[in-house]
Amino acid sequence: MATPPVISESSAAVSIDLASLIALRRESSDFSLRPRQVRSLQTGGYLSRIRGRGMEFAEVRAYQPGDDIRSIDWRVTARSGKAHTKQFQEERDRPVLLAVDYRRPMFFATRGCFKAVQASKLATLLAWRSLAQGDRIGAFLFSEDRHCELRPQLGKRGVLSLLRQMVADPAWQRAQHQPFEPQQRLAQTLMRLRRVARPGSLILLISDFAQWDQQVEKQLKLLSRHNDLGLLFCYDPLEAELPLAGSYRVSDGQRDLTISTQDDSGRRNYRQRFSSNRQQIEQFCQRNRCLFLACASDQSPLDCLQQAFPARPRA
Does the pLDDT at position 105 exceed 50? Predict the structure, then answer.
């Protein structure tokens, strides 16, 4: 009987702590969330429409060669008889809302760490980066039976509030080996997220997207109308590909089951189901000009973010 892949017994693979999340601040300078620097990962190279900070109206002035004709103020132009354009200035800060999935399927791994641990590290790096760029950091932490909302805050206090809330989330204390029986589906959770999100926010949803369906797509599309949206897809390598051909014993803590991975057609079908699901999510992002980023549980979260958010070249 072949030996199944197992995750490390280290507590860092199955849990998070405040000190290690704070320490990630040192790594957060190696990528950028600035506009026009965002690129999708493994999605055919399409550009995200993430714009960065919002724009506030400043004044109207006479049209100058090179001005964007879409900014022409037609009322002032008609009244004065000369072309005038609207001028805008950047808002001082932008709300960044990190939505982190702590539902039961996220507490699984055969390589690296739990998907929930990986999601927490991704959220932490993004929060520290947002702080450095002067943005306000808020959060929406959710599981199958509860959610926690953190209003966007400016400064280090907002990041630390997020880190403390992630570490203290009751999902980490759940009894193991219980079935996934959500009181509400992912689409219902996203409806609540829509009510929380302030228009003009950058929303980064970190999840394995279990329960992806048409209703989920509908809610995400509505979110993307008034916000910049990014989907960060966390998965375990075993979900993408069965282990080498052999017989494996698995257990839920109460029952044992032996599965065989020797059938080539079965392995292909398994691989295809994962690929189709991932492709469905990617295609949604392409249609709606959203960021897509895939990050396996055995990958470095910083490496994943650097591919999607390249660092700005130094002057």
Answer: yes
Q: Which of 62-66, 188-192, 232-236 has the lowest mean pLDDT?
A: 62-66
- pLDDT higher than threshold 80 for residue 200: yes
Give domain limits for the chain. 11-52+93-308, 55-90
DSSP string of the chain, one letter each residue: -PPPP----SHHHH---HHHHHHGGGGGGGS---TT--B-SSSTTPBP----S-EEEEEEEE--TT--GGGB-HHHHHHHSS-EEEEEEE-S--EEEEEEE-SGGGS--SSSS-HHHHHHHHHHHHHHHHHHTT-EEEEEEE-SS-EEEEEEEESHHHHHHHHHHHHH-GGGGSPSS-----SS-HHHHHHHHHHHSPTT-EEEEEE--TT--HHHHHHHHHHHHHSEEEEEEEE-HHHHSPPSSSEEEEE-SS-EEEEE---HHHHHHHHHHHHHHHHHHHHHHHHHT-EEEEEETTS-HHHHHHHHSPPPPP-
Query: 179-188, pLDDT tens digit by residue?
Result: 666 667 899 9
pLDDT value, residue 56: 54
Architecture of domain 11-52+93-308: 3-Layer(aba) Sandwich (3.40)
Chain-wide mean pLDDT for the chain? 83
In this prediction the pTM is: 0.79
